[in-house]
């Protein structure tokens, strides 16, 4: 599965990187961070097939770094999807989608709905109901739920279903268009978290896999569980979708190897865990806003992202 992702990114993005390096503009000063030789850090990160985790406290520079990475991805022709919880990405050159969101009716609804929560708490109840319904519509699901499940499971599943009926329209047969999915307009945090999990799964599952794609998600806004993140990463490998994961804490230990880690002011717990994993990173003391340790495998380098300016 990893080879597919490597082929997509290692061929098309590498070619774009090579074309840019040979162009006259490549010699111009780079506003996007530190240079290694003649290459920008953002370019090097975009050439990698690994996912990227931006880890740090609020105000440490994670969102700024994400914007520079997205800007680099756009210049490579990568299709970028951003789940925007706080209207932080409105200054990027991407179309913006607002609720109700239009998604393809041919998307794998049973699997998508099952990702909205952990197994046994209603999500799989929705999935099985969709699979058994003659028409994979939200109305058919609602009828099946009441007929098939006990009150507790049906109630939990129906709560997720109501969120979808409120913010999702199933009438488009095209793959998801790249852009910013504006979740900041949804006032209820629980509804926003459930919807974001659904949209993240939908974007990855509906990606055709023939073109490099990038999905930017935030753990804090999604309330993502380890089960959800593990499932999303598994599918993303099959679809050739890279993920930028923004969080205050490290990904689950068994998933760390899937990421290039950018450690901003991540706190002593994260550094202790990395030390236990034999990834000796210097102590976080002394890191200024925008500075981070870039950890790839067993190597680490300090990099810096400048303040964000719209290009």
UniProtKB/TrEMBL annotation:
Residues 50-93 form the Helicase HerA central domain. This is Helicase HerA central domain-containing protein. It comes from Infirmifilum uzonense.
């Amino acid at each position: 599965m990893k080879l597919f992702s490597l082929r997509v990114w290692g061929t098309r993005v590498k070619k774009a990187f090579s074309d840019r390096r040979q162009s006259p503009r490549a010699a111009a000063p780079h506003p996007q961070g530190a240079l290694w030789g003649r290459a920008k850090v953002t370019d090097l990160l975009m050439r990698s097939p690994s996912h990227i985790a931006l880890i740090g406290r609020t105000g440490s520079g994670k969102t700024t770094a994400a914007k520079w990475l997205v800007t680099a991805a756009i210049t490579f022709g990568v299709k970028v999807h951003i789940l925007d919880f706080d209207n932080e990405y409105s200054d990027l050159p991407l179309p913006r989608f607002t609720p109700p969101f239009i998604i393809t009716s041919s998307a794998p609804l049973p699997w998508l709905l099952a990702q909205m929560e952990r197994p046994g708490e209603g999500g799989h109840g929705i999935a099985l109901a969709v699979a058994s319904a003659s028409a994979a519509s939200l109305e058919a699901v609602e009828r099946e739920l009441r007929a098939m499940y006990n009150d507790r499971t049906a109630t939990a599943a129906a709560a997720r279903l109501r969120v979808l009926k409120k913010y999702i329209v199933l009438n488009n047969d095209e793959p998801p268009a790249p852009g910013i999915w504006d979740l900041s307009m949804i006032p209820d945090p629980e509804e926003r978290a459930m919807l974001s999990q659904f949209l993240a799964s939908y974007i990855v599952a509906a990606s055709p896999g023939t073109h490099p794609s990038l999905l930017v998600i935030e753990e804090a806004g999604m309330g993502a569980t380890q089960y959800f993140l593990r499932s999303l990463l598994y599918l993303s490998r099959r679809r050739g979708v890279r993920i930028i994961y923004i969080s205050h804490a490290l990904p689950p230990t068994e998933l760390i190897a899937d990421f290039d880690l950018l450690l901003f002011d991540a706190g002593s717990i994260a550094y202790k865990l990395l030390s236990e994993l034999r990834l000796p990173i210097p102590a976080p003391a002394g890191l200024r806003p925008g500075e981070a340790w870039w950890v790839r495998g067993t190597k680490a380098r300090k990099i810096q992202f400048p303040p964000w300016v719209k290009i």
